[in-house]
């Protein structure tokens, strides 16, 4: 006679979403200043006059490149030193911001909580990881760069 089998072990419970406090005033000021810098850098790159002295479409002067590099370095420092992001990991945000500039606007408006929210938010159960951020950035960034260079 066989013994009754033991019941299967219970499935692990889904983790409780962690509360994310709103940004401190200092962090919010930094985010908004960077948002203005990102938008100004993009506007400058898109609206700058093109003259006969340009060697080709999409060519950049030293000031253009330095402005973009300074904004990217400041944004990366904010991602590293700021509070833990709630929608994606720091690596995911880094890759998205490095490849697709609109992701910088999304990061600055929504991480760790939306800029307009002053109450805590709940983090989702899963976040976008660095590998997926790299792939999404690569797939979206290449056509976006080609489109901007074609302008």
List the helices and strands and how they pair.
Layout: E1 19-20, H1 25-47, H2 62-81, H3 90-99, H4 101-110, E2 121-122, H5 130-150
Antiparallel strand pairs: 1-2
Helix pairs in contact: 1-2, 1-4, 2-3, 3-4, 3-5
- End-to-end CA span: 80 Å
Percentage of residues in helical conformation: 55-70%
Shape: elongated
How many DSSP H or I helices? Answer: 5
Uncertain segments: none
Strand content: under 5%
Write the H/E string, N to C: EHHHHEH
Describe this structure in words.
- It is a single chain.
- Helices cover 56% and strands 3% of the residues.
- It has 5 helices and 2 strands.
- The chain has 151 residues and is mainly α.
- It has helices spanning 25-47, 62-81, 90-99, 101-110, 130-150; strands at residues 19-20, 121-122.
- It starts with 18 loop residues before the first strand and ends with a helix.
- Strands 1-2 form a two-stranded antiparallel ribbon.
Brief summary:
The chain has 151 residues and is mainly alpha-helical.
Which terms summarize this structure?
single chain, 151 residues, mainly alpha, two-stranded antiparallel sheet, 5 helices, 2 strands, 56% helix
């Amino acid at each position: 006679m066989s013994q009754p089998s033991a019941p299967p072990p219970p499935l692990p419970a889904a983790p409780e979403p962690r509360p994310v406090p709103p940004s401190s005033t200092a962090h919010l000021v930094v985010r908004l200043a960077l948002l203005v810098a990102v938008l100004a850098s993009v506007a400058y790159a898109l609206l700058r006059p093109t003259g006969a002295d340009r060697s080709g479409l999409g060519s950049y002067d030293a000031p253009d490149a330095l402005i973009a590099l300074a904004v990217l370095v400041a944004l990366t420092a904010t991602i590293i030193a700021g509070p833990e992001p709630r929608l994606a990991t720091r690596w995911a945000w880094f890759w998205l911001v490095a490849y697709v500039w609109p992701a910088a606007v999304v990061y600055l408006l929504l991480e760790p909580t939306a800029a307009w929210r002053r109450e805590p938010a709940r983090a989702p159960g899963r976040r976008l990881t660095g590998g997926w951020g790299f792939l999404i950035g690569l797939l979206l960034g290449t056509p976006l760069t080609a489109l901007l260079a074609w302008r």
